[in-house]
Amino acid sequence: MRSAFGQEFDVPDGYLNTAGIGIPSAAAADAVESAVRDWRTGAGRPGDFEQPVQLARAAFAGLVGFDVERVAIGSAVSELVGLVAASVPDGTRVLVASGEFTSVSWPFAAQSARGVTVTVAEPAELGERAADHDLVAVSVVQSADGRVADLDALRAARASGTRVLLDASQSLGWFDADLSWADVVVAAAYKWLLSPRGAAWMAVRPELELVPTSAGWYASADRWADIYRMPMRLAPDARSLDTSPAWYSHVGAAAALPWLAGLDRAAVHAHCVGLADRFRAALGMEPAGSAIVAVRTPEAMERLTAAGVVASGRAGAARLAFHLYNTEADSARALAALT
Predict the structure, then answer these.
(1) How many C-beta atoms lie closer than 10 Å to residue 164's C-beta?
(2) Cα–Cα distance measured from residue 301 to residue 338, given in angstroms and rounded to the nearest whole number
(3) Can you give the residue ranges of the Aminotransferase class V domain (predicted)?
(4) Among 25, 277, 20, 318, CA closest to 169
(5) How much is the pLDDT for 84?
(6) DSSP character string of 163-214
(7) What was the pLDDT predicted at 278?
(8) Which of 50, 147, 160, 197 would disulfide-bridge 190, Cβ 3.0–4.6 Å?
(9) What is the DSSP secondary structure assignment for residue 333, as one 8-state letter?
């Protein structure tokens, strides 16, 4: 068991795979276990999950700098980005990064029958090319190799009239940056937010009118009163975009996200990036200011696996991720395997 930033983690030595699956705190895991136990014994009730959903929603709002009324819940990033993609006008011109995670790019590509076009550019070019497009959709930190988006350039592009959608799944929880200026910010729970898979959130500005194509009882103005009623009465805020929550995922998120939102973000950022950049330096790589490191040396994944290091193979590289529960000992084990 490790202690990190006031929580206990049952994370094994050499675990450097948070970019794939984050490890929950003991408190978050215990909360989920308790809820599952209630389910198993028939003690759970639907109303029991209202508070966890709201706690996690409010904490996400705090993490991204939006009002809680502007946050919708879903189960995956692609589902939430899909709401945006289905709502953009016919002929919308979308710009995405080369190598972008497909949960960000494909929902827009799926709208091609309406004349929606998707153009691919190098990440460093997005800011300068944004003016020729209606919307830029990009990850704050790229999943494959940890490249950090030029947020200043994207913010300037938005000020000039281009909409900006940010996927913060690989950054929220360690990256200290202001995202409150974006039109849309989405993120999944199960990576750096250290929560169970099955929860995701989207913060969206009120002037961006989205069609609630999956509207159901949870998007209602009064959920329990409207479950059998017509005509439709949607919530007056971003809750109108909600889909029914994966209960146990939100129980874990309600324990994890408020804690993360209350941390000194600069300290977390310095810890994670410090570990990653020192690791990069030991391999003769330049610092990148990212908690994700892509190693392309021959047989890197095989060497890491043999040494008991848990990493991911992505885009032809071994991807290592350094989160707040990682230590210099984890880095040393990986370095010994690679050098």
Answers:
(1) 24
(2) 9
(3) 51-283
(4) 20
(5) 98
(6) EEEEE-TTTTTT-----TTSSEEEEESSSTT---TT-EEEEE-TTS----TT
(7) 98
(8) 197
(9) H
CA distance 180 to 107: 23
- Which residues have a Cβ under 8 Å from the Cβ of 60 and sit 6 or more positions away? 71, 187, 201, 203, 257, 261
The pLDDT value given to residue 331: 98
Q: What is the pLDDT of residue 102?
A: 98
β-strand pairing of 200-204 with 71-74? antiparallel
CA 83 to the chain's CA centroid:
16
pLDDT of residue 296: 95
- Distance CA(152)–CA(166), nearest Å, equals 13
**Nearest-5° Cα angle at 219, 217 to 224:** 45
Ordered by start, the domain boundaries in the chain are 2-26+264-338, 46-261
Domain 2-26+264-338 listed as CATH 3.30.499.10: no
- How confident is the model over 107-117, as pLDDT tens digits? 999 999 999 99
pLDDT on residue 12: 96
Topology match between the domains 2-26+264-338 and 46-261: no
Q: Which residue numbers in the chain have pLDDT < 50?
A: none
As beta bridge partners, residue 292 has: 321
Q: How far is CA 49 from the centre of its chain?
A: 22
The H-assigned helical ranges of the chain are 26-40, 50-64, 77-87, 102-109, 126-129, 151-159, 247-261, 265-282, 300-306, 328-338
- The continuous run of DSSP H or E covering 139 comes out as strand 135-139
The pLDDT tens digits of the residues spanning 172-196 come to 999 999 999 999 999 999 999 999 9
5's tokens: 């930033």
Burial 272-288 (b: 16+ CB within 10 A, else e): bbebbbebbeeeeeeeb
Going by the DSSP 8-state scheme, the letter that residue 1 receives in this structure is: -
The per-residue pLDDT for 179 is 98
The answer, yes or no, to whether the previous bond of 231 is cis (omega within 30 of 0) is: yes
Edge-to-edge strand ranges of the sheet holding 163-167: 71-74, 200-204, 184-188, 163-167, 135-139, 93-97, 117-121
